[in-house]
Design goal:
Belongs to the class-II aminoacyl-tRNA synthetase family. HisZ subfamily. The protein is an alpha+beta fold and about 375 residues long. It has twelve helices and 16 strands. About 40% of the residues lie in helices and about 20% in strands. Strand 11 and strand 12 form a beta hairpin. The radius of gyration is 25 Å and the shape is elongated.
Amino acid sequence: MTLPEGTRDVLPPEWAWREYLRSKLSAHFAQHGYRGVDVPTLEFQNHDHPQDATAFKLIDVGGSVLALRSEFTTAITQLAHRRFPAGPFPLRLQYAGRLWLRGQTSELGHLREFTQVGVELLGVRSPQADAELLEVALSALSAVGVAAHLEVGHPGFVDGLLEDAGITGAARDTLHDAMDRKSGPDLAAGLSAHALPAELGHLLYRVMDLYGGPDVLSEASALPLGERARQALDDLLAIAAAFGPERLLFDLGMSRRYGYYSGYTFRAYVAGHAQPVLGGGRYGGRGETLPGAGFAVGLERLTEVAARHLPPEREAVLALDEAGVNYAQTLGLVAERAWTNDPADWQRYAAARGIVRMVRGEQLIEVKA
């Protein structure tokens, strides 16, 4: 029997590794003041939801259109409005759980059912708050043995340049996508398809190359910038000063989900892996919306990246009596109870399971090959 596309079974020892990582991350977030919450798997369908176009939808018995949870940030901010309308702010929350998308192409994976662990810092907007999330993100990965580097950008920088050039609609989307993927051919095709001026192309190619240490911020400041792009650059400079500019890589062409993020965005990368293990940024704060920022760790990808750092499974022994169960557990072993009195069955099971010792009372017995 096959599984639906984009889904998978999780087997030992991967399940144990994932639970270990989830618990370590949650404990680390708690040390920084992030309290755990849970939100429903089912939500009312909303055309304004950032993932509405790719969410799984169903109709309940009352005729309401529901959607399976497709991302956490919207659900957590709605929870904050319902349950913590008066704060206290800053409100620090953490979550862990599964998400579902009909077609998943995010940088955190290509599964249609996947798990995220993350945090949201709500109700405040400041360089110090943005730097806090960078610190928590980097230290969380370090806590599970993963050395990563952070890449930081601001979608408002590229969008400000396009806005100043009068670029809207499909052309705007095309150029944002090409810039974020650093695809020179796609950028050229977009400029040509929409008959955009060569001067804009030269500027965008320069921005696409603005990647690296703090020097790229100085290079960006020398460009002809309008008010919005200048403000985005000032935001990055303030965050860098609060966090430590030498600890970051800056990507001025980073412009994913430019209509969603209202401030900086960041990703965490691990050497030898092309896709990020973590991503987040600042959102909201427009009009009546609550300002917030957060990040999510893709647990499937982190498990893959962190596998060599994870503790080995504890040795399992076959316990032939209850005294053996107790003795094995005092030694820190996993005790599997014998279900039969037939030694031949013990031998066959031990061989199939990879068990090399049995225990009776306080006596450990080697399994005969």
